[in-house]
Design goal:
17 helices, Maf protein, nucleotidyltransferase, Nicotinate-nucleotide adenylyltransferase, alpha/beta, 8-stranded mixed sheet, Rossmann fold, 2 domains
């Protein structure tokens, strides 16, 4: 039995042995790229004959293609899924008649690019397990993407083996508690050695799991600095989604998404797409929420997070959750995945904060170092104007209040085109603020519905987000 009732964290040896001694588990290990690092643990600890039906490594690309079919890349999600599907189907076909009543079959697979003999490769991999939680059960699956951070190939292989054992053990011991499973993935390791930037649960055992919450959990635990998901809730792996694309990011609370948020992204995208380096290319547009924003009231409110995610989804937007409060860290993260142009759009008030030196005291070079990092890859910032409610005066790049000692720096960034005004905004959006929308929702003032996209208003009313309680109020004002 795999149940750990001691309350103590098992080490890698104990986890592998627990799986081997559980006579219900029987399956295949298929590993490509970094050797058979995971299955080696199960052979090493003893008792593997009761667990391992087959172990294989189709290391040669032609052999791999012959078994699993051709793929655009060998270290990619497509190849991993082909491996899982093929090996699990073979286990069920070959073994069900003999032991299907008592065994739960599984297939573990990974496809990995570890540090090569000559160095310099992107050290990452895809890993997953497809399994039955109970005999003759429908299939369940967990897949994840890892980045290996050790500088030596041997250490990367060691770390990969440990993560794999944690995944196999977790699938069997914690499939009913997926958050605990995520929490256990780096047992015996640290975030300085392995980063997990994508995880996806699917199948019968995880039918109630919301993968957006699991993405949030990765960042909350520090397993990754960021995680992404699409408007349909599908988990995205950044290196695949952002690969060779220009990127445009809007940071906000999106509580809820208002017309001004949509207009800010639209107007920035229009300007960004006109740049010679971007024209004609598919721009990846992203709405980003930082962990600092999600924790503004203390602990993360998961219902509030899902409400924000759903209103962004209603706008068809891809979502990035990041622990990169400093913009230079966000820029460095995005630059990992593309050599194309990167742009950030923000309001004038946020641009003022960008020049506040208190945010850069941890850097030896202070604000100069932060801006050197931020703009080193020719990043572009687009500034959306701020309207003064009392005077109707607009704050733009031209009249932004910057400390005297930083005005030359600001002027330099303006002159070289690093910071630009957005003059193609919709004037009707300038008076819209999310705090006013939330207040009007609480007061049952239906005028808030005109301040957000129609699709967002429908979602808020239907699902009672942001304490909406006014749908049947007889005192509602006419629109």
């Amino acid at each position: 039995m795999l149940e750990n009732t001691s309350g103590k964290t098992l080490d890698t040896h104990q986890k592998a042995l627990s799986v081997n001694l559980d006579n219900r588990r029987y399956g295949t290990f298929a590993e490509i790229g970094a050797g058979q690092e995971v299955v080696r643990w199960f052979f090493r600890v003893g008792g593997a004959a009761g667990t391992i039906a087959k172990s294989m490594s189709a290391y040669d690309m032609q052999v791999s293609d012959a078994i699993y079919g051709r793929a655009a890349r060998y270290v990619c999600r497509e190849r991993l899924q082909a491996m899982l599907d093929q090996e699990h189907a073979l286990n069920i076909e070959r073994l069900t008649e003999a032991r299907g009543e008592t065994s739960t079959f599984f297939a573990f697979a990974d496809t990995v690019a570890a540090r090569g003999y000559r160095g310099g490769s992107d050290c990452h991999g895809w890993m997953g397990i497809k399994f039955q939680a109970h005999p003759r059960d429908e299939d369940s699956q967990i897949i994840l993407h890892v980045r290996m951070l050790d500088n030596e190939m041997a250490l990367q292989q060691e770390a990969l083996g440990i993560v794999g054992v944690n995944l196999v053990y977790g699938a069997f011991a914690y499939h009913h508690e997926p958050e605990m499973l995520v929490d256990s993935l780096l047992d015996g390791l640290s975030t300085s050695r392995i980063e997990i930037d994508m995880i996806e649960f699917s199948g019968i055992a995880f039918r109630r799991v919301d993968n957006r919450l699991m993405s949030l959990k990765l960042v909350e635990l520090g397993l990754s600095g960021a995680a992404m998901f699409a408007a349909n809730g599908e988990v995205l792996q950044p290196s695949e989604f952002l690969y060779r694309k220009p990127i445009l990011v809007e940071r906000g609370s999106f509580r809820p998404v208002c017309n001004v948020n949509v207009d800010m992204l639209r107007s920035a995208n229009e300007k960004f797409s006109e740049l010679p380096e971007v024209k004609g290319k598919n721009v990846a547009q992203i709405m980003e929420i930082t962990m600092r924003n999600l924790k503004a009231e203390g602990e993360i409110d998961r219902r509030d997070f899902l409400a924000r995610a759903d209103v962004m989804a209603a706008c068809g937007m891809n979502v990035l959750i990041s622990d990169y409060f400093e913009y230079y860290r966000l820029a460095a993260y995005l630059a990992r995945y593309t050599k194309e142009k990167i742009a950030i759009t923000m309001g004038a008030a946020s641009l003022v904060q960008l020049f506040d030196e208190k945010y850069y005291t941890q850097l030896d070079g202070g604000i100069l170092e932060s801006f050197g990092r931020l703009f080193k890859n020719d990043l572009k910032i687009y500034c959306y104007p701020l309207k003064n409610r009392e005077t109707d005066e607009l704050t733009t790049c031209e009249n932004l209040e910057i400390k005297p000692e930083l005005k030359q720096l600001y002027g330099y960034l303006m002159e070289r085109g690093g910071i630009s005004d957005l003059d193609n905004y919709n004037p009707d959006c300038l008076a819209i603020f999310s705090r006013d929308v939330l207040r009007k929702i609480g007061e049952c003032d239906p005028s808030w519905e005109k301040m957000v996209p129609e699709s967002v208003a429908e979602v808020i009313k239907k699902r009672k987000f942001f304490d909406y309680q006014c749908e049947d109020d007889p005192c509602r004002l006419p629109r």
